[in-house]
């Protein structure tokens, strides 16, 4: 099985026989659709990139520390399916995180954006969708569920964990009840 993965910007990484390509190289011959995975932490960036490449062999995986590290020619050379930004514990509303989401939209305007998060937070999910994010994936999900969520978003759907949705609905119902707006729920 061949994995197409591009490391950005660390050109010194030579790979280990797993299909890792030098900095900024995209398999131009195959013109495979690509997933962009952005993570400021090297270890998780490389490990998640490897897993995505292995579990989504029909795609190339472009990994970068930030949106600025993705060369413009990479976005022009590939058909990006989805852009994933791993926010770790930064809250949605963090200026740097919102800047990265905005720059990702500028790089490829119709690109569905997904947030990977180290924390499950209903308020964060609501804020993320308000920013146009089409997927919110907590990293405590099994990898196969993560892959299916990525496929769903790349096919035009939206994904967020049902546990967070039910929590959000409970909060909304409680808030409506305390505001005397119970009838609006039904």
Structural key phrases:
single chain, about 190 residues, alpha/beta, Rossmann fold, seven-stranded parallel β-sheet, 6 helices, globular, disordered C terminus
Describe the structure.
The protein has helices spanning 42-55, 72-77, 95-107, 122-130, 143-154, 162-178; strands at residues 4-7, 20-21, 33-38, 60-64, 79-86, 113-117, 135-138. It is α/β, with parallel strands linked by helices and 186 residues long. The longest helix has 17 residues, at 162-178.
Outline:
With 186 residues, the protein is of the alpha/beta class.
What percent strand? 15-25%
Largest sheet descriptor: 7 strands, parallel
Helix content: 25-40%
Shape: globular
Q: In which order are the strands of the major sheet placed?
A: 2-1-4-3-5-6-7
CATH homologous superfamily heading: Response regulator
The averaged pLDDT comes out at: 78
- What is the CA-atom radius of gyration, in angstroms? 18 Å
Briefly, what CATH class?
Alpha Beta
CATH architecture call: 3-Layer(aba) Sandwich
Q: Can you count the beta strands? A: 7
Number of alpha- plus pi-helical segments: 6
Helix-strand topology string: EEEHEHEHEHEHH
**Count of folded domains:** 1
- What is the CATH third-level topology name? Rossmann fold
The helix-and-strand class reads alpha/beta
* Low-pLDDT regions: 8-23, 182-186
From the N-terminal CA to the C-terminal CA, the straight-line distance is 52 Å
